[in-house]
């Protein structure tokens, strides 16, 4: 499971240090793709295969299903961590997520997300006020 928030930089060649706590769970090869909300989603191979199988069941006759699978798969790329603990993020993915220098890497259960620091801070500030309401609407924690 991935959890936590880490701050890193993307260098001029598009490389970013992967938080040490995430490296083992990502494995030697993993998938990076466009995520929702202008971030990147990072999946270990096992989780990617599960997601791929779920998306394969979407009806290709539905316009929204075709659009989403195109969006998701066309941006996907297989990546590896180098000896310095970095991943090279492809230029189209960096452009999509607006990663130019500072970024935030967060663990979200079965995946990692990579955000531009600016976009993450805007998203978090906007969402922070409504977290209680969101939780009330979607989850019954029964605590």
Report on this structure.
- With 143 residues, the protein is an alpha+beta fold.
- The protein contains 6 helices and 8 strands.
- The strands form 2 sheets. Strands 1-7-8-4-3-5 form a 6-stranded antiparallel beta sheet, sandwiched between helices.
- A hairpin with a 1-residue loop joins strand 7 (102-109) and strand 8.
- The longest helix is centred in the middle third of the chain and has 12 residues, at 45-56.
- The radius of gyration is 16 Å and the shape is globular.
- The two termini are 22 Å apart.
- The mean pLDDT is 93.
- It is found in: Cytoplasm, Nucleoid.
- Residues 5-47, 76-119 form the SpoVT-AbrB domain.
- Its main location: cytoplasm.
Cα-atom radius of gyration? 16 Å
Question: What profile does the largest beta sheet have?
Answer: 6 strands, antiparallel
Q: Structural class of the secondary structure composition?
A: alpha+beta
Find the count of extended strands (DSSP E, 2+ residues).
8
Strand-residue fraction?
25-35%
Distance between the termini: 22 Å
> What fraction, in percent, of the residue positions are helical?
40-55%
Anisotropy-based shape: globular
Q: Order of strands side by side in the largest beta sheet? A: 1-7-8-4-3-5
* Contiguous helical run count: 6
In N-to-C order, the SSE pattern is EEHEEHHEEHEEHH
Contiguous low-pLDDT stretches (5 residues minimum) are none
């Amino acid at each position: 499971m991935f959890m936590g928030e880490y701050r890193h930089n993307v260098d001029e060649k598009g490389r970013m240090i992967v938080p040490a706590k995430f490296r083992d769970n990502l494995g030697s090869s993993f998938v990076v793709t466009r995520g929702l909300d202008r971030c990147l989603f990072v999946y270990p191979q096992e989780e990617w295969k599960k997601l791929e199988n779920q998306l394969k069941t979407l009806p290709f006759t539905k316009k929204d299903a075709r659009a989403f699978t195109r969006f998701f798969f066309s941006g996907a790329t297989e990546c590896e961590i180098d000896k310095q603990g970095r991943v090279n993020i492809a230029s189209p993915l960096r452009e999509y997520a607006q990663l130019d220098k500072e970024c935030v890497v967060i663990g979200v259960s079965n995946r990692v997300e990579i955000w531009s620091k600016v976009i993450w801070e805007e998203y978090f500030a906007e969402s922070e006020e409504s977290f209680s309401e969101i939780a009330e609407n979607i989850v019954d924690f029964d605590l």
